[in-house]
Amino acid sequence: MVNVLIIGATGYVGHALSQSLVRSGNHRVFGLARTPEKSTALAASEVIPILGTISSSLLQAIATHRIDTVVDVSGANQESHSLLSLVREAGGERLAAAKKEGSPAVPKLGFIYCSGTWVHGSSNEPVNDLMHVGTPSAPSPATELTKWRPELEKAVLASSDVLDVMVVRPALVYGRSCAIWTSFFGPIYAAGQEGATLASVPADPDSRPGLVHVDDVATGFHAAIEKLPLIAGTGVYPVFDLQTSQEGMRDILEAAARELGVKGGVELVGAGEDLFMRAMSVSGNGSSGRAKSILGWEPKRYGFVQGMDVFVKSWVASRG
Ligand SMILES: NC(=O)c1ccc[n+]([C@@H]2O[C@H](COP(=O)([O-])OP(=O)(O)OC[C@H]3O[C@@H](n4cnc5c(N)ncnc54)[C@H](OP(=O)(O)O)[C@@H]3O)[C@@H](O)[C@H]2O)c1
User: Fold this and answer.
1) Whole-prediction pTM value?
2) How far is the CA of 78 from the centre of ligand 1 (A)?
3) Is 122 left (phi over 0), alpha (psi -120 to 50) or beta?
4) Structural domains in the chain?
5) What is residue 75's predicted lDDT score, i.e. its pLDDT?
């Protein structure tokens, strides 16, 4: 079985991915846990916990557990640079050891970095994963919140000397806990509880975000892990966007208001200066043709608004 280490296994995307891999029976799944409680939770879901942080102890763990592929789905942001350095070091050591032993060919350590389609910035113009984000030729600059990410993507891609590398970029993710939607669903829920007729939400009324369900994100990364050794070194550009729909923010939030009992609907008052709210208010007209044709990704869930009755109840339930 292939040994996969997930950095961020206790998170929203990481949990869905680890469960997809465990269910396949093709992988031994390891996950970094930052507390003993999270370590126990990982073990309960058949993920082998590695208690620690992004630090040099990870190097030892990668060697000890004979990890084949490391996947960074953490929200570690700038710390992901340190993680990349550690994984590069581990990959270099593996190649050097094989050379010393006289092995003619040795598989490189795999590394998949989870970025996000926010690197495409905000535009209704079609974008795809062959466009060079963070350059003047891109349709729009990366969102302010993630403007550091194109450089990290480049550093990941430049690590193919010692690693098999790939960058996977989900669009805005929905489903299950709908974690990232709390800033919008929260005020609508509160208005419903107070019996208010109108909910005020800090979102741009004209935005049309690109979207993808968390289960489809999991199968996208799962496909990426399985295809990485086939694609690496072939000349295929190893960057893949995962998006299944583009829907109006107003439609999304009106649908949530209906489900949460706010009869007058929502008033979208603009994102203001908050960088997270501004990032949530982007428009993204992406496509995932390459993820489907090259990775063999088969997303199953199309439509946030369409399934809002289920998604809002799931969001409420996951908050207890
Ligand atoms: N959610 C979306 O809509 C979306 C869309 C596109 C891209 N993404 C990207 O997907 C990634 C995961 O997002 P998410 O929504 O799953 O986030 P999340 O639920 O907040 O999970 C983050 C995970 O990363 C771990 N983590 C955070 N900082 C860390 C650090 N310094 N060292 C080690 N582990 C750390 C967390 O561990 P703890 O449990 O210990 O906190 C948790 O397991 C992020 O890079 C995000 O930008 C998300």
Assistant:
1) 0.98
2) 12
3) beta
4) 2-174+211-244+285-301 (3.40.50.720)
5) 83
